[in-house]
C-alpha cells in the first residue's frame, strides 16, 4: 500500500505507520484470553451484542474492542459470616452468623459452603443478573436463608447431639434455593450446590451454663448414688459379719450350755446315788439297831460330832443334846 504512493515520502510513511498502528490496535483488542478456571461470554461493546456461545480457557478472537463477561468454571467457596470490610458489613455479617432455633434461642454459627455455576445456564444468568457480583450476592443471600431455615428446624438441645443432621438439613435447603425446586415451581439461581460444612456452633451462655449445671448436678447425683451404694455395701457387710458373729456366739453358748447341763445331770445323778446309798445305810442301821427315827438322828448327830476335830455346837433351849432315852 505504501509503495503505491507517488509523492510526499514523509506523508506516505506517516500514513503507513498510522495504518499499521491502527491495525495492530484492532488486532490487539480483537484477542482476549480466558484462564483455565473461567467461563466467558463474548460481548461486543460497540454493537452491544452478547454472543450465545460459552467460551472456556484459552485465546479467543472477536470483534474489535470486545470483552468477556467472566464467571468461574470451578466451584466457589464462601463463608457465613463473611469477612468484614466495614463497620456496616461487620454488623450485617454478625446478623448472618446468628440463627434462631425452633424453641426460640439464638445460636451463633459459622458455615462454609461451595457452589458452582451451571455452564448451560450461563447465558440466562448474564441476561437476568448482568454481572457475576449480582448473581453471587443473590446466591449468598439464598445460602443465608437456607442456613436460617435449617437452624429453625431443631431445638437448641439438638445442636449438641445432632450436629451432622442439622448440617445436612442446611445443605438440603441450600440445594432447593439455588438449584431450584420442581415441586414448588422454583427456578433457583442456576447454580449447583457442592457441599456445606457447619464449622462452628456456639450456644447461648445461659443455656450452656444451665447444661453445665445440670451435668454437674447429674454427676453429684451419680456420686451420691455410688456413695450410698458403697455405704449400703459396707452396712450389709457389717450386718453379715454381726449375724455370723451372733451365730457363732449362740452356737458356742449352746455348746457350753449343753456341756454344763450334761455335767449338772451327771453330778445330780451322782448326788442321787450318794443319797440313795446313805438312805440304804441308814435304813439298814435303823433296822439292825432297832432305832426310832429320833434315835437314828441322835446316832447320826453323834457320828458327825465325832468326825469333827473341834466341834462347835450351838443349841437353843429346849434343844436336847442326847436322845439316850429314845434309844
From TrEMBL:
Bilayer-spanning residue ranges: 6-27
Record keywords, A-Z: Coiled coil, Membrane, Transmembrane, Transmembrane helix
Pfam name, any one: Band_7
Domain Band: 36-238
Keyword rRNA processing found: no
Coiled coil, from the record: 225-263
Signal sequence segment: none
Name the UniProt record assigns to this protein: Band 7 domain-containing protein
Source organism (scientific name): Cymbomonas tetramitiformis
Amino acid at each position: 500500500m505504501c509503495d503505491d504512493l507517488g509523492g510526499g515520502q514523509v506523508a506516505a510513511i506517516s500514513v503507513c505507520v498510522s495504518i499499521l498502528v491502527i491495525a495492530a490496535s484492532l488486532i490487539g483488542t480483537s484477542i482476549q484470553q480466558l484462564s483455565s478456571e473461567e467461563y466467558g461470554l463474548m460481548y461486543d461493546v460497540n454493537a452491544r451484542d452478547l454472543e450465545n456461545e460459552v467460551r472456556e480457557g484459552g485465546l479467543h478472537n472477536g470483534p474489535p474492542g470486545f470483552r468477556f463477561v467472566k464467571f468461574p468454571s470451578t466451584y466457589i467457596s464462601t463463608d457465613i459470616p463473611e469477612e468484614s470490610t466495614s463497620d456496616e458489613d461487620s454488623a450485617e455479617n454478625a446478623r448472618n452468623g446468628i440463627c434462631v432455633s425452633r424453641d426460640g434461642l439464638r445460636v451463633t454459627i459459622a458455615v462454609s459452603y461451595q457452589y458452582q455455576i451451571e455452564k448451560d445456564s450461563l447465558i440466562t444468568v448474564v441476561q437476568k443478573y448482568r454481572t457475576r457480583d449480582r448473581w453471587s450476592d443473590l446466591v449468598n443471600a439464598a445460602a443465608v436463608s437456607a442456613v436460617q431455615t435449617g437452624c429453625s428446624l431443631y431445638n437448641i438441645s439438638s445442636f449438641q447431639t445432632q450436629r451432622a443432621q442439622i448440617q445436612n438439613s442446611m445443605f438440603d435447603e441450600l440445594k432447593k434455593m439455588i438449584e431450584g425446586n420442581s415441586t414448588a415451581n422454583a427456578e433457583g439461581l442456576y447454580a449447583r450446590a457442592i457441599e456445606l460444612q457447619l464449622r462452628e456452633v456456639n450456644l447461648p451462655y445461659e443455656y450452656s451454663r444451665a447444661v453445665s449445671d445440670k451435668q454437674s448436678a447429674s454427676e453429684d447425683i451419680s456420686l451420691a448414688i455410688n456413695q450410698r451404694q458403697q455405704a449400703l455395701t459396707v452396712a450389709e457387710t457389717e450386718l453379715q459379719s454381726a449375724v455370723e458373729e451372733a451365730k457363732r456366739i449362740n452356737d458356742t453358748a449352746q455348746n457350753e450350755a449343753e456341756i454344763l447341763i450334761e455335767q449338772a445331770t451327771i453330778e445330780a445323778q451322782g448326788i442321787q446315788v450318794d443319797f440313795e446309798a446313805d438312805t440304804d445305810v441308814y435304813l439298814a442301821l435303823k433296822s439292825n439297831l432297832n432305832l426310832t427315827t429320833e434315835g437314828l438322828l441322835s446316832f447320826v448327830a453323834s457320828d458327825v460330832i465325832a468326825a469333827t476335830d473341834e466341834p462347835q455346837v450351838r443349841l437353843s433351849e429346849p434343844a436336847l443334846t442326847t436322845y439316850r432315852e429314845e434309844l
